[in-house]
Amino acid sequence: MWVASWLLFALAILVWVVARQTSAVVAAAELGSLREERATEEARAAELVARIREARSRRVLIPRVQALGLRLPSDSEIIILQTPSPREPR
User: Fold this and answer.
1) Pair 33, 43: CB distance under 8 Å
2) DSSP labels for the chain?
3) What residues contact 72, with CB distance under 8 A and at least 6 apart?
4) Per residue in 42-80, pLDDT tens?
């Protein structure tokens, strides 16, 4: 009777170990997939940032502005406004 109990206990432990290993392999595969997806999304974000930077450049904006009939202001037409600095709390 004791031998059968120990064999069942050992079998249960082995089943538990195999189940843990299987779940670890599945989790590792999922992690690899998520890392690839993250790398893809980071590359896409970098591409979008580059496209935004390009769209904000003078090389792109000046022809668009001129097509709308606008012009660049001369140096004497530029006024820099400064906001007052916030006061220290008392």
Assistant:
1) no
2) -HHHHHHHHHHHHHHHHHHHHHHHHHHHHHHHHHHHHHHHHHHHHHHHHHHHHHHTSHHHHHHHHHHTT--PPPGGG-----PPPPPPP-
3) 62, 65
4) 999 999 999 999 999 999 999 999 999 998 888 889 999
**Residue among 56, 33, 53 at smallest CA distance from 45:** 53
Q: pTM of the prediction?
A: 0.57
- For 25, what's the count of Cα atoms within 13 Å in the CB-facing half-sphere? 5
Residue 73 corresponds to which tokens in the numbers above? 């202001």
Structure tokens given for 55: 């769209």
